[in-house]
């Protein structure tokens, strides 16, 4: 039985600034009942599909929602409607505009119909032949999968594949309208390199702050090329002059050949090289290590968000054997605590015991399935390790458990803005019961003054095929600030 957790009451401005908890209300707040259905106030929010125009189809009892066709197979994927020069020319000026429209415009001033649903808006707007600039802008946003749809408590990064998700996330965190908004470097990872992407998330942590993009050996995907054009990394002393960190045999952009390459082999070797690079760039060892499964990336994905936020490297192990590259990294730093992410069915007790012979302290953080495993890390705290998100007032990132590439691409959202842990859902239409219960535990509330309360915000990763409008609406309701108690 889950223990009752208080919902936050009003917080005086001075106390909130100091991070102090609000005093307890005279009457205990009751958490919203599980049986309550999500309110219709959470309007439909769907991200655009890269390379295709959305079609609008009405749904019963609601305003029209934006449906997108199923993603084309890689070999059959059509080129985006707008040519690359048009995308590149408008990208820098338009990045911030679309992000502001998505986050601010989508979260306030909603027009409601009789059902309370907010009318959906799209980056494409009402562009006409007489408004060529707006049409070009819409196509740019559509091609890159900007977070163009939002409810008052959620924002969707609606890329139709990890390439589009990574490009949109990078530009959401680094709008790049001025040089001060650009990252010094980016990380390029192969489109299928799940372990490399999860391990490379640590390079998003200070001082490097490099977002992740996906590429390929022969050529760069168009969304990646467009994002690189806007981000325009120039290198810095924190990156040792490198503007690109390339994991594996990916093509370096023209003009950015001054990059640092990391070999991509087995997961343990790749992660060990990234951990060594991280030590060199940071000027010292990390505070902790995370050891995750190299063969089951759905259990390892939550480590990417924590690595981006903390700078703790992710190392990989096999289920029943600690790989030599991982052991070698741990042996260099025997006094640094190690946290094993995953249940014994994924990482055996024997591996934990083997780590314990090297490290002075090792502990396991685990859930029985990928969604529960992500929740365990979100709740966990041991000294300075762990999110410890057990109360209202936080950001969250929600992605599909079966798409660890999306989760890794979204890791920068856990290290910027509303900084928060990764949560996982297992299908498009239904939020796992454990995740619903957790969001109820941390649901924000107020007694008299909502402007003095804490707020939750959730980034929804992927298009409607990945996470449906109905599931996003449910998440929005769970994140909604609730009136509690009888105070006036």
Give structural notes.
- The protein is of the alpha/beta class.
- The protein has one domain.
- Helices cover 31% and strands 13% of the residues.
- It has 15 helices and 17 strands.
- It has a five-stranded mixed β-sheet. Strands 6-5-7-8 form a four-stranded parallel β-sheet, with helices on both faces.
- Helix 13 (404-409) links the parallel strand 13 and strand 14 (422-425).
- The longest helix is centred in the first third of the chain and has 22 residues, at 84-105.
- It is globular.
- The model is unreliable at 1-138 and 144-148 (pLDDT under 50).
Features:
disordered N terminus, globular, 17 strands, 15 helices
Q: How is the topology of this model organized?
A:
Layout: H1 13-17, E1 55-57, E2 65-67, H2 84-105, H3 132-144, E3 149-150, E4 154-157, H4 162-173, E5 186-190, H5 194-200, E6 212-215, H6 222-231, E7 244-247, E8 259-262, H7 267-282, E9 289-293, H8 297-300, H9 302-310, E10 314-317, H10 324-332, E11 338-341, H11 349-358, E12 362-365, H12 370-379, E13 395-400, H13 404-409, E14 422-425, H14 433-441, E15 445-446, E16 457-461, H15 469-479, E17 482-483
Parallel strand pairs: 4-16, 5-6, 5-7, 7-8, 9-10, 9-11, 11-12, 13-14, 13-16, 15-17
Antiparallel strand pairs: 1-2, 3-4
Helix pairs in contact: 2-3, 2-6, 4-6, 5-7, 7-10
């Amino acid at each position: 039985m889950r223990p009752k957790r208080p919902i936050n009451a009003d917080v005086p401005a001075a106390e909130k600034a100091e991070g102090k908890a609000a005093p307890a209300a005279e009457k205990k707040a009751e958490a919203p009942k599980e049986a309550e259905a999500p309110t219709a106030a959470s309007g439909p929010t769907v991200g655009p599909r890269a390379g295709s125009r959305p079609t609008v189809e009405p749904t019963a009892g609601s305003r029209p929602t934006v449906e997108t066709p199923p993603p084309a197979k890689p070999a059959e994927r059509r080129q985006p409607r707008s040519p690359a020069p048009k995308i590149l020319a408008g990208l820098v000026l338009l990045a911030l505009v679309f992000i502001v429209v998505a986050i601010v415009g989508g979260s306030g001033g909603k027009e409601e119909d009789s059902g309370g649903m907010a009318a959906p808006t799209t980056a494409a707007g009402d562009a006409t032949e007489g408004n060529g600039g707006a049409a070009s802008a819409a196509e740019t946003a559509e091609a890159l999968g900007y977070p163009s749809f939002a409810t008052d408590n959620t924002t969707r990064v609606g890329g139709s594949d990890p390439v589009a998700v990574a490009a949109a996330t990078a530009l959401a965190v680094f709008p790049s309208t001025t040089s001060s908004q650009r990252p010094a470097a980016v990380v390029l990872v192969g489109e299928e390199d799940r372990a490399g992407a999860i391990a490379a998330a640590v390079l998003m942590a200070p001082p490097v702050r490099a977002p992740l993009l996906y590429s390929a050996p022969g050529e760069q995907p168009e969304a990646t090329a467009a994002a690189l054009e806007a981000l325009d990394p120039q290198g810095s002393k924190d990156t040792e002059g490198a503007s690109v960190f390339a994991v594996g045999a990916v093509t370096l952009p023209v003009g950015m050949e001054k990059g640092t390459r990391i070999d991509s082999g087995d997961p343990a070797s790749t992660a060990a090289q990234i951990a060594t690079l991280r030590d060199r760039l940071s000027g010292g060892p990390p505070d902790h290590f995370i050891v995750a499964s190299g063969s089951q990336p759905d259990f390892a994905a939550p480590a990417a968000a924590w690595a981006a936020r903390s700078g703790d490297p992710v190392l990989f192990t096999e289920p029943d054997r600690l790989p030599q590259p991982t052991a070698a990294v741990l042996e260099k730093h025997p006094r640094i605590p190690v946290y094993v992410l995953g249940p014994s069915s994924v990482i055996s007790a024997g591996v934990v015991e083997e780590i314990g012979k090297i490290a002075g302290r090792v502990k396991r953080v685990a859930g029985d399935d990928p969604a529960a495993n992500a929740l365990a890390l979100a709740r966990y705290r041991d000294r300075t390790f762990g999110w410890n998100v057990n109360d209202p007032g936080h950001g969250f990132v929600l992605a599909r458990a079966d798409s660890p590439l999306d989760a890794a691409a979204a890791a920068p959202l856990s290290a910027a803005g509303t900084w928060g842990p990764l949560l996982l859902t297992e299908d498009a239409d239904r939020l796992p019961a454990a995740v619903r219960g957790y969001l109820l535990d941390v649901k924000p509330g107020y007694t008299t003054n909502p402007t003095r309360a804490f707020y939750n915000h959730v980034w929804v990763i992927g298009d409607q095929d990945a996470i449906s409008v109905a599931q996003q609406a449910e998440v929005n309701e769970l994140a909604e600030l609730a009136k509690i108690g009888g105070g006036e």
